[in-house]
Amino acid sequence: MPFGDPQSNWGNAYRNLLIPINKETDRSNFAQSAAQYYSILKSKFNSNKPVFDVIFLGVGDDGHTASLFPGQKYINDTTSVVIETTSPKPPFSRITLGLGPIVSAKKVIAILSGKEKATIAKKIFEKDFELPIVKVFSQRKSSTMFIEESILPSLTPSGMAML
Hints:
By secondary structure, the protein is α/β, with parallel strands linked by helices. It contains six helices and five strands, in the order H-H-E-E-E-H-E-H-H-E-H.
């Protein structure tokens, strides 16, 4: 997605975060292809397999996270550092970290917000392995998930113990 597009995550981060903190030069980290993104990561981490200190993840109402969508062939790929994905909703073409670097991060923090995500919350606690976020959690020793209070009534106490 073009940097100037209002739906561009990088464009929004640049305009709303980097410019206000005087980090305009970080625009050079905007990648327009998986290969370019991988090259940036490789140079910043000085490694073919970057290990992030912390990765923050959101969870979509379909259970996707980091532009990794349920039912896609890459869902079990733990070797690719960066992949191109296609979303069922705009923006359709996406570039994202692969499952491997996410799972390998020192800390993973997921945020689940919006009462409309109560069904997905149940599936997460039931360990529905079709959901990318469950794939992430299942391959890590520990992760942290913040859940909006409006979702909690839909979860049973036994489901909460599964975290």
